[in-house]
Amino acid sequence: MFPAAWTGAPGAGAAKLMERKLSPLEIQAADALRRARRLPVGPGRNDLRQLAVGLLWLHRNGMQALEQERARAVSSAISVHDQVENVMA
User: Fold this and answer.
1) CA nearest to 32, candidates 9, 49, 14, 44
2) Cα angle 73-70-43, degrees, rounded to a multiple of 5
3) Dihedrals phi, psi of 19, to nearest 5 degrees
4) Is there a contact between 48 and 36 (Cβ–Cβ < 8 Å)?
5) CA separation for the pair 62, 23 (Å, rounded)
6) How far is the C-alpha of 46 from the C-alpha of 52, rounded, in Å?
7) Whole-angstrom Cα distance, residue 86 to residue 89?
8) Gap between the Cα atoms of 80 and 26, Å rounded
9) CA 57 remoteness from chain centre
10) Is residue 32 within 8 Å of residue 51, measured between CB atoms?
């Protein structure tokens, strides 16, 4: 009735074809979320959730985006410092 490839759970063959290896950052994010779920609502749980969000952002955007973000933050801090100096002078 059905070909041999169709025996088993629906979509099982597609899952094997779509399977990919998780990066270390994704694994760390998943671990942080698992630990957060065990904690009661509060700051410790929120910290772990924020850590997971940051790790996933880093995974998606890479180190280059992080370096660009830091450079932007430093340049804006320098411009604020210059503006304060101009006001104080």
Assistant:
1) 49
2) 90
3) -65, 135
4) yes
5) 12
6) 10
7) 5
8) 36
9) 3
10) yes
Which residue has tokens 């850590």? 51
Q: How many whole angstroms separate alpha carbon 70 and alpha carbon 76?
A: 10
Tokens of 12: 């099982």
Domain boundaries of the chain, sorted by first residue: 20-88
**Sequence-distant (≥ 6) Cβ neighbours of residue 8 within 8 angstroms:** none
Contact indicator for 28, 57 with CB cutoff of 8 Å = no
Per-residue pLDDT of the chain (89 residues; tens, 9 = 90+): 455 555 555 565 655 677 889 888 899 999 999 999 999 999 999 999 999 999 998 888 887 877 888 888 888 888 777 777 777 76
Residue 52: how many other CB atoms lie within 10 Å: 21
